Amino acid sequence: MNQQKVFELAKQGNPQAIDVILNRALQPKSIKAKTALKDRCLQIIFEYAQVPSQEKLVNWLHEGITKLDIDNIERLNIYGWQQP
Fold it and tell me: Under a CB-based contact definition with an 8 Å cutoff, are residues 72 and 58 in contact?
């Protein structure tokens, strides 16, 4: 799937497309993201070996999700999980 199609699907709130975008951006930081959309709430679980700066990650995520301008999302829940 090309990058433009992924971006269009992400703007529509497609969790798999949002996964692709997030994981491409976070790969250099060794952070993985998994998303789900339920009841107009986008849930994102971050998995990492080394705990990132929560403030930086949340600000980066807020900026990115805002740029996508997804109509069917009212809330965003963010979770983190450190790999053992």
Answer: no
Element (H, E) at 55: helix 54-68
Q: Is the pLDDT of residue 51 over 80?
A: yes
User: What pTM value is reported for the model?
Assistant: 0.88
Res 84: pLDDT: 80
Q: How far apart are CA 24 and CA 33, in angstroms?
A: 10
Q: What is the pLDDT of residue 6?
A: 94
Classify the C-alpha dihedral 21-23-28-31 as positive or negative. positive
First and final C-alpha spacing in the chain: 33
Whether residue 46 contacts residue 33, with contact meaning beta carbons closer than 8 Å, is answered with: yes
Where b means 16+ CB within 10 Å and e means fewer, 52-66 reads beeeebeebbeeebe
Write down the pLDDT at residue 40: 92
